[in-house]
Write a structure and sequence with these properties.
alpha/beta, TIM Barrel, eight-stranded parallel beta barrel, binds 3-methyl-2-oxobutanoic acid
Length: 265
């Protein structure tokens, strides 16, 4: 059952979950079968992530993933879910492009069935979040490790250590002021993620960001032990379970109870 009972999870409901101190469970899916299993397991948010570049297409980064790829997988997932909120990633150079480019691309994903789009980065791109939000497109920000910037960052590393933490906090506030409805914090120190989560009223969803975020998100293949390697912050939820829906339900329950992530994750 979703956090909102049998009612569909909406943007206002996500805000209410944060106010009520109830954790939000999110995971990626790219096709109808796994999306259906997530709906059955009570997932609150299903993310059609551009991580599909890695886990579906076998690429080395998310940079080559196209808008057409995103729209195709969003349509596949949209057909299979009824309760979770469906979020889709804007691909490389979409959220980071002109406001009209971001809006046109968001329109494609919303027409494919998304309820919210996610854009990586902040600073100059916060204006695009405001532009989309004002036009009825709910936006999820994504800061910390932003995989679309891998070639500038020089690899997939923890972000926000030391003085850089203050910059991430400022970015979170700026995106919140711009009108985002959700914020992904990826690979940032747990203490910083806690500080950001307390500083903004927007719900935060962490991945490798400790237990104090308002919710958690994992790439499905990692959570089912199917990745080529298991990052330290990932738990294999399929281990010891009878099947996929049971594994996904165990994840949802662990997020809701606050037992995932544990200290070593
Ligand atoms: O693309 C993706 O799957 C994501 C998650 C890692 C948050 O952005």
């Amino acid at each position: 059952m979703s956090a909102s009972g049998f009612e569909p999870v909406t943007v206002p409901r996500l805000a209410a979950l944060k106010r009520e101190g109830r954790k939000i469970a999110a995971m990626t899916a790219y096709d109808a079968s796994f999306a259906r299993a997530m709906d059955e397991a009570g997932m609150d948010i299903v993310l059609v992530g551009d991580s599909l570049g890695h886990v579906v297409q076998g690429r080395r980064s998310t940079v080559p993933v196209t808008l057409e790829d995103m729209a195709y997988h969003t349509r596949c997932v949209a057909r299979a879910i009824s309760r979770p909120l469906l979020m889709a990633d804007l691909p490389f150079l979409s959220f980071q492009g002109s406001a009209d480019r971001a809006l046109a691309d968001a329109g494609v994903l919303m027409r494919a069935g998304a309820h919210m789009v996610k854009g990586e980065g902040a600073g100059p791109f916060a204006a695009n979040a405001a532009y989309l939000a004002a036009r009825g497109v709910p936006v999820c920000g994504h800061i910390g490790l932003t995989p679309q910037f891998v070639h500038s960052l020089g690899g997939y590393r923890v972000q926000g250590r030391g003085a850089h933490g203050a910059r991430l906090l400022a970015e979170a506030k700026e995106l919140a002021d711009a009108g985002i409805s959700l914020l992904v914090l990826e690979a940032v120190p747990a203490a910083l993620a806690a500080e950001i989560s307390a500083a903004v009223t927007v719900p935060t969803i962490g991945i490798g960001a400790g237990p104090s975020c308002d919710g958690q998100v994992l790439v499905m293949h990692d959570a089912l032990g199917m990745g080529p390697r298991r990052p330290r912050f990932v738990r294999d939820f399929l281990a010891g379970q009878g099947g996929i829906v049971a594994a996904l339900s165990a994840y949802v329950e662990a997020v809701r109870q606050g037992t995932f992530p544990a200290a070593q994750e």
